[in-house]
Each structure stands twice: as structure tokens, then as C-alpha cells.
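Field: COMPLEX_INPUT
Field: COMPONENT_COUNT = two
Field: RESIDUE_TOTAL = 714
Field: MODE = joint
Values follow.
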Amino acid sequence: MSNKQYCVIMAGGIGARFWPRSRQSMPKQFLDILGTGKSFIRHTYERFAKLIPAENFLVVTNRKYKKLVLKHIPELNENQVLCEPIGRNTAPCIAYAAYLLQKQNPEAEMVVTPADHLILGEEEFRTIISECMEFAAKSGSLVTVGIKPTRPDTGYGYIQVSDDQLLSKVKCFTEKPNLELAQTFIQCGEFFWNSGIFVWSVKAIIEAFAKYLPEHHALFSDLQPALGTEAEEMAVEKVFAECRAISIDYGVMEKADNVYVRCGEFGWSDVGTWGSVYQHSRKDRYANAVPAEGCYLYDTRSSIVQLPKDKIAVISGLKEYIVVDTEDVLMICPRSEEQSIKKFIDEVKFHNGEKHI
Amino acid sequence: MSNKQYCVIMAGGIGARFWPRSRQSMPKQFLDILGTGKSFIRHTYERFAKLIPAENFLVVTNRKYKKLVLKHIPELNENQVLCEPIGRNTAPCIAYAAYLLQKQNPEAEMVVTPADHLILGEEEFRTIISECMEFAAKSGSLVTVGIKPTRPDTGYGYIQVSDDQLLSKVKCFTEKPNLELAQTFIQCGEFFWNSGIFVWSVKAIIEAFAKYLPEHHALFSDLQPALGTEAEEMAVEKVFAECRAISIDYGVMEKADNVYVRCGEFGWSDVGTWGSVYQHSRKDRYANAVPAEGCYLYDTRSSIVQLPKDKIAVISGLKEYIVVDTEDVLMICPRSEEQSIKKFIDEVKFHNGEKHI
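Field: COMPLEX_OUTPUT
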């Protein structure tokens, strides 16, 4: 393990798509929606802890999740959890970590990862990350990890490569194409899913901020002296209030000319929807993804059921449904309606306030 | 109010048909399944308390429900709750009360009522009960209350009358006819539903026991000296272990020749199924019977939803379903499948023991 290598876990999401399992007080990254025995953020930590020493992790999250982060990753010190006062998308989140690291160690190399993805082939994944770190350090480029697509998913960003090397210069980014375009991408073979996992040196990413997001560069450069001091919290509050919300993809990656993608296949999913949870869950012989115990199903097929611990369910006559029961909210909806969850949340919030959100 | 008049509430049922709302530890009679603000047994007590003084009530129940009875009817003394060690159907239950009353007051007149029925026209009902009591006292006959049937229900017992008087001699009892027969009964006009509400003098019912259920008569006559003494509990235990389970309808009413029925219409239901709860509940404009608050329905019709207090539900895409959520059990099933609930209970019991039953 190298002392120059750092892992930045982005853990600020509120995970509304898994409501009512995920809540504002308990977003997806802290849940074990797939029933693996560990939360997403714990898996993410352990995945990288074999490459990077514990003291070189940073987690960027909303300040209200600081305690949760430390509970799920007790290996971290409090000062390794960077608290955003407000979510401003990935560019400010990454900037916060990068400008802090620059101050601590100008030679730092960083891998940036979402906290809530599923990766099945961890060994293969780590091999790829190590390659990326080596390449990024040597070349000073910005490296992103691309996933060989398995279906014309319209919810992902796509990266077009310029050659057929595993580590290839990026030709183009396309955010959430329509189905026709996604199908063309798949057939063409030059397109990969954007995993949102990035590798670069602190030097390279800060140069990119300076060039492509000069406002952010100015704000975070001004912030830098306060970082790690008692003035940090108030200074961060001010910067996040002022800075524009923008994704690192849109703000930097799509514009920079030194972006490379390392393509791989390692059983990746962002587990962004109940459909994806269904896909990655073990199913019974009627294709139901249900808890191992306590679920009594009759004439029920292709459904997903999630229950609180020790609760049992008797379910008859549901085909392709999502049933999510929690202590204070029950949701029953067809799998084809999962995109309505945000509408459900809005309506509940309108009538009932934040209590159940 | 007459000091000779007593009300015996039969409250031993375990109400499996309303599982998971009703439980072995909390049967239907102690629940407010219709959301009226009071339990069935409380309504039953209040219904008769306008005719009969509190000290003249007896409640016969399983011993495990004694505390619940006293909680729901705090007007009663402990010795007014007669505890069955085991359910033996209605004849032993009634015998227990009748032989006790005979000892306390040989002139006693009694009305016997289930604890868990719905009666909407309470004034009309009380008028009828008063008439029955007067007639039973005067004539020494056994009087049952018949309900003008509104549909060819195959779950009820039917009573055929011998003339078109309101208070008529009974010609015949028919337990749970098939649909064809039930339809014929309705068309014929001579048939009424057996409400399970009876009025008679203690003298008359004990004479009937002696004549038609001599074994029971012998057992309960032997028991009588122990009633109201410290020996009661053990003696009752022995009698219930020995005596045959049999309904008062089958054991006495169908055989006796002095049985009369007082027919009436007073908005009666035994609320014996979720279908009946649905029928008696207020519905929204899509014919859903749901809690007044906390239920967010989309594309959902003709369904019944019951939730724990303060819980909310978001339900999409259900037509004619029963959704019953409790703290530790969730049940979702088509309304047409409500007769499967006993099967559900058996299966849960087999796999999980009594914990959720």
C-alpha cells in the first residue's frame, strides 16, 4: 500500500428511489437492501481497504450522516468524514476532498467512488483500480472506470472510446440516451457505462478544476487555508452556499482532453432501482425475491418483498409487485410503476410532512 | 329494569377469520375492526345495559381473556366473568351460565348474545328483546331472534317459521344450506337467519338441557354446588374436559318443541368475514374501505386496507384486495380468497409456531 494513495467515498445521497426502505434519516448507502449482511458503504470501504490504508480514506457526506458514516466505518477518524452542509452534486463534493488532500499531501493520488454500488468481482475490480492508479500517476490524466454494457439502459451515462485498448482515450460522453440511441450504442461496441468511479492525481484534478470550473477553483482555493482548522465548518458552509451544483462528468470529464477510460467487466451495478435490486437478488422458484424466512406466498410471482426484521408476510395473488414494509410505512406497487415512487413521496410529504420521508 | 333479567354474553371465540388483526391473544370481540371507536364486546355490553342492570351481566369466555373482558367492561365484577378452560361450543357455555343463574336466582330470565355482532338499529333491537323477554317469561318457551335475510348467504343457519306472525313458532332449522337451497329459502319468504341471540327463562333452558342433552344436564347439575365457591375452577375444569362439544342450536333448539322466533330487521351482521367488514365500512369514491388518514391509493379499487395506528400505506394497482398490516404480520390477499385465511394460519403455525397467531 502506498501512502500517496487515497480513497474518497461519495456518500451524500438520500436514496429516494428506495423509499420507504431508504429514508432521509437512513439513505441507501447505509442500508443492506440486497440482504448481503453489510451496508453498501461498508462493502465500499472493505473493497478499497485492501488497496488503501484506513487513514487514507475520506468520506464526503451530508453533515447529518456523519455519525452514521462513523458507525458503519469505525476504522475512520472523525476528521476523515467531510461534511457537506448541502448537496451540490459531485463536482463540489470532489473538490472538497481534492483541495483538502492537496493541502495534506500535494503528491496525493485519489480514487473516487460512490458509496452505494454493487461490485461482484472484487478481485478483478481491484486489479483494474490498481492499473488505473498506476496509469493516472504516470500520465497525469483523468481516468474513469467504464463498464461493458449488458443492456440498452437509458438511465446511465455512456462513454465512447477511441480505440479497442482496455485503457482508452475517451472520445465522448453521452448522458442518459433514449432507448434507440442506447441500442445503437450497444450494437456499436464502442460505448461503455460510466460507473462514476474516477482515478486521478490531486494535481491533475485541481488543474482541471482551474481550467474547466474556474469559479469552483476560486472558491475552493480560498477555502483551502481553513480546511483542517476550526474555521473549516463555517468556511465550508459559505462555499457550498455559493458554489454552483454541477456533476464532475458535466463540469470536467466531458470537457477535459486528458480523460481515459479503463473498461472492465466485474459484475457492477449502481443498484439504482427496485428493478435492479430484484435483478441482483436470489429468487425462489416462482421468481420472487423475498426474505429467506417469514414470507408465505400463494399464487405470487416475480415479486420483490422486503420486511422489517422478525415480521412475517402472507401474500396471495400478486404478479410482478414490489412490497416494501417498514415500521411506519407500507408500500405496495407494481414493479412497472417503480418510477412513481418519487410521486408517492411528494404526495405523502404534501399531506403528512417529513415524518415518513 | 327487572332484577330477574340477566344478560349472558358469549365471548369465547378466537376469531381466526380476522387474522392477522385478530389473534389468539386478542380475538375479534375485543377489536374495533369497523373503526367505530369501541370494541364489539363493549358495544354488546352497552346495547344491553339499557335494559339490564350491570350486576346482572355474565360474560362466558376462555379463561385467558378474563382480564380483557374486565378491561373492556370495567362495570363488571370479577365473578361475573365465567371462565371456560376450553371452548366446547355454545351448549356448554350456556349451561355454565344457566346453572349458575339457577343457583343464584331460580326465577332468572336470560338473554344470551354473542359478543361480536354488529347491530345498527339498537332501539328497534331493544324493543324486540324486551318483547322476547316478556313472551319467554310468560310462555316458558325458548325464543330465538331471527333476521330477515337480505341475500342467499350460505354461511348462516336458517329458521323456517310456521306462520307470518312476528313472533312465530319455529318449524325447522337448517344449518348452512348450499346456494341453491339458500336462494329457495329467500324466495319462499318463510326463512330467517339465525342470529344466535336467545331469550328464555333459566327454568325453561334447564328443562330443555335435561330433556335433550341429558349428559350435559347431569354434568352441570353435579357442578352446580361448586359454582360460586372456591371449588368452582377445578370443578369447571373437570366438567369441560368431560362434556361433549355441541352447539345450542343442534343440541337443543332443533329438537325442542317450544321454540319461537321473533323476526326483525335491525341492521344485523355477525361481521364474520373481511367481506362483511368491507360491506359495513365507509368507502371512498373508488369503493375502497381504508383508514380515514394515511392511505395513499393509486389505481386501486374495491379494496379493504387496515393499518396499525400512525402507519401510512402507499398502494398502487390493487383491485379487490384485502391488505391487513399489523405490527408483526402483513397479509395481502384477494377479497375472493378470504376463506384461505385459515390455511394461511395453519401454514404459519406449522413453520413458525404460535408466535404470530
